[in-house]
Amino acid sequence: MIVRIMGEGQLEVDGSHLDELNRLDEELTAAVDADDDPAFRRALAALLAAVRSYGNPLPDDALVDSDLVLPFTEAHITEVREMLAETAGEGLIPG
Amino acid sequence: MGILQRMSMIFRAKADKALDRAEDPRETLDYSYKKQLELLQKVRRGVADVATSRKRIEVQLTQLTQQSDRLQNQAQKALSMGREDLAREALTRKSGLLQQISDLQTQHAALQGEEEKLTLAAQRLQAKVEAFRTKKETIKATYTAAEAQTQIGEAFSGISEEMSDVGLAVQRAEDKTAQMQARAGAIDELLASGALDDPTGTSKDDITLELDRLASTNEVELELARMKGELTGGPGDAPQQIESGPAESAQPVAEQVGEPAAQPVAEPRREEGRP
């Protein structure tokens, strides 16, 4: 499983950790739905810590898609909301 | 669906869209490669911009620290002259400066982190761009429509995700740098306006002026007291002076009658210093 931490690159994480990552992802999602930034920051910090501890960085010249993408370390809820809202249109993520 | 998956889909959708744009996939490869090189340039410029901002903050930190030391000295001087009010004013200003310094230090650390991240991002992108170029040439050489399509898709989506991510990282760095520059500009203005006095010491701030005024007032008072003593021929002063400062001390006294403020505290101090 390939995981990207935005702004930091990609890591390979063993599939056995998927359940834990999913659980943390649910917390993150709940925080976004509830518009609770402190909870969002906590959940993001936990996710980043988990991915960093389980993951091995991919070599720089690897050209592969990621299965999961984590927001950048300093991200706040509004920034992630904006990114998610971009699905339909042009904008935030430059082509 | 969780957020992490949705985020990865956003990146993928972007790549697919770019891939669909061209009719001949080989054109897509060349076009993308060109874009990759442009982005690489942009990231390197980003690194340089962040470094410039960081250096500017370093200069300001040095200046503010000098100011704060100077205010500390002023406070000590004022207190030794019995002007607690002036000492308090200097210390109040100093504490304002310390706040600024601590803010700047935080920003400096943030910029340093940003610089490191972008430098690494540039390295990663460079390695990926090179890998992409190799792949691109291979695909072009063995080109048969069906085969190429999947290979191109793979190579392309991998680099496209990186480009989106790096593009966003540069944007964030630029935003941060712009904010810092606005703040740095405000501090420069503050330094220039004399609200935080001039670190070169060429223009004097109000506390220094007040201390100077106090010093010269003190001198004048001391001079006057001594001259009065000489005029009244009081037995205390004049003989004592001849004892303590022999030939040389007589001369300055005569000069100082005409120009009291010009020769500073030197005379009384010299007396104190001698047994």
Describe this structure in words.
The complex is a heterodimer of chains A (95) and B (275). Chain A has 95 residues and is an alpha+beta fold. In chain A, 45% of the residues lie in helices and 14% in strands. Chain A has 3 helices and 4 strands; from the N terminus they run E-E-H-H-E-E-H. Chain A has a 4-stranded mixed sheet with strand order 3-2-1-4, with helices on one face. In chain A, helix 1 runs antiparallel to helix 2. Chain A starts with a strand and ends in a 10-residue tail after the last helix. About 5% of the residues of chain A have low confidence. With 275 residues, chain B is an all-alpha fold. Helices cover 86% and strands 0% of the residues of chain B. Chain B has 8 helices and no strands. In chain B, helix 1 packs across helix 4, helix 2 packs parallel to helix 4 and helix 3 packs antiparallel against helix 4. Chain B is rod-shaped. Classes of the chains: A alpha+beta (95), B mainly alpha (275). At the A-B interface, helix 1, strand 4 and helix 3 of A face helix 1, helix 3 and helix 4 of B.
Note the topology:
The complex is a heterodimer of chains A (95) and B (275).
Chain A lengths: L1 E4 L3 E4 L5 H16 L3 H18 L1 E2 L10 E3 L6 H9 L10
Parallel strand pairs in A: 1-4
Antiparallel strand pairs in A: 1-2, 2-3
Chain B lengths: L2 H19 L3 H56 L3 H58 L3 H49 L12 H26 L5 H8 L2 H12 L7 H8 L2
Helix pairs in contact in B: 1-4, 2-3, 2-4, 3-4
